[in-house]
Amino acid sequence: MPDTFASSFTALFLAALGISVAIRIWLASRQIRHVCASRDRVPAEFADRVALEAHRKAADYTVAKVRFGFVALAVETALLLVLTLGGGIDALANWWQARWPELTAGLGLIFSLLLVSGAVDLPLAWWRQFAIEARFGFNRMTPRLFLTDILKSALLAAVIGAPVILAVLWLMGTMGSYWWLHVWLFWCCFNLLILFIYPTWIAPLFNKFEPLAEGEVRQRVEALLARCGFHSGGLFVMDGSRRSAHGNAYFTGFGKTKRIVFFDTLLKRLQPAEIEAVLAHELGHFKRRHVVKRIITMFVLSLFFLAALGQLISAPWFYAGLGVGAEVQGTAVALVLFFLVMPAFVFPLTPLGSMLSRKHEFEADHYAAQHASSEDLVHALVKLYEDNAATLTPDPLHSLFYDSHPPAAIRIAHLKAAT
User: Fold this and answer.
1) Which of 20, 70, 195, 330 is the most exposed place for a label (fewest CB within 10 A)?
2) In the annotation, is 282 catalytic?
3) Residue of 76, 133, 274, 282 with catalytic role
């Protein structure tokens, strides 16, 4: 009977993986066809704002990224199969458990998988940065900075990640059948702590942050914050141009550590009134409690997934169905197996997250239209679409599935209606 369950779960996993891969390939193919079909014609609503050459560049950039996605998908799928049904996790777990105590072996297994995954992803990330981004004029990163970022990220993962992983594995092994509830509480506290310390301790390891200089932009921003009743820990400019020509602005932190951060590329491109409108949009996310809602959603989902793992961790068919022998079954193996294969099962639900995100974007736009100029926000968005080479003509189904922001035409139509 256990062998039957294991075989059935193997078949179920392969079916879920095959469906998710097929959907991704189908959507990517639709996106390429749709963007290419519209490449030589700027949509009528943007004809007076976006040059044909910029529109073509956005189309070519989008297609290049989607085509590269086929390669990344093939590598990702192959690695998953090698690690699971190919016996990769089983071999690594056997090696570590033969030499170290349970907790140390579990930590070694997880870091080994991170190392393998990072090594496989490295050439893909390199090509993405120094071929695709460079080809379209967006890359500002040097090979030295690229490698330095990887080293810093690895050291940070070791310093912060190792104690966290050990704590999780210890809770899983000592808290009985409700270990998943203890792990969830610990995970929630850890994430809230990261939200507090990220702006002042982690982000400066990768970028420089300087106070926003005195002038019209700062005056407009401070007036907007006063009108909206928003209190922040400071206004900062980040040296985003060290790595990319893309522009952005965002909030970071939580509580008294909240910061407003502008990319230097954004400040150079937009007019003061347009920057004010973009910030009003970001304030809309805060005022409509989108950040809190997303945190709560993340916590609820993590509780659900950990509870599901709590049911699977003692099921022999779960391990055997994913290529792991009985001699290495345990907490660390169950943890990595679950979070490796879970995306294949939940991928069809991706549109739900995208739909919620787009709803939040519409709400933030509406807030911006109430507290700043909607026309200035439209001008800013068009410039950002153009500067970031974001396609104005995405495939509707691809956009529905993946896009966290509404398509440009729909978004701008909503803004004009709110005027």
Assistant:
1) 70
2) yes
3) 282
